[in-house]
Amino acid sequence: MSELINKFIHQKLSIKKLDENGKEIGDQPGESFQVMFNPTHYQEKFGVDVVCKTLIDGSEYLTYKQLQDQTLEFELLFDESYVNEYVWRRLTKSFDSVATQIENFKKTTGYPLAGENKPNQVKLEWGGNNFKDERFFLQSMVLNHLIFNRSGNPIRTKANAIFRRVNTLKSEQADNSGSGSKSAPISKLELKIG
Question: What is the model's pTM?
Fold first, then answer.
């Protein structure tokens, strides 16, 4: 019976805090965060850095330097306008204010908290998406407060959150320490200009 019910329930985007070994810490507020409404879309960014070099004869060519970090950008909705209150309370047995939801999101991602000098590594889970086995950290977040109660407190907020893949962060730290140059296992790219 529960399998039949699960077929009709949408899987929510979950953000789970990881320890240094990449293991999930727990499901308590500040350790795990589940969105109220799934994003309507998300954006993945990939890129390549190239360097322009000039030869003795004055011609120029581009040389592959490195792969850019993968980023994921989500538009998230924090809401307490009671539009979906009945269904949400039935499913979660609770209802947090927008301020509490944002605070739990920040605790899970480690985005800037007093005394912390680095964000938490997190795992993003949402259905069968190809990023579920990667580790990310929250690079930036912009909050747009949209609807307010009589006291002036936001009751609906949209957040644009950008998560950056962790793997390439380690190679940047190695480069900054002077241990060598970054490279990726792809062949050299040269493009002559003019």
Answer: 0.69
Structure tokens given for 185: 């296992």
Backbone angles phi, psi at 85, to 5 degrees: -60, -50
Bridge partners for 74 per DSSP: 42, 161
Q: Is the pLDDT of residue 73 over 60?
A: yes
121's CB contacts (< 8 A; 6+ apart) are 17, 18, 20, 22, 135, 136, 137, 166
Helices (H), the chain: 2-6, 85-92, 98-109, 167-176
Residue 168, φ and ψ in degrees, nearest 5: -80, -15
Q: In this structure, what is the dihedral angle of CA atoms 108, 114, 119, 120, given to the nearest 10 degrees?
A: -40
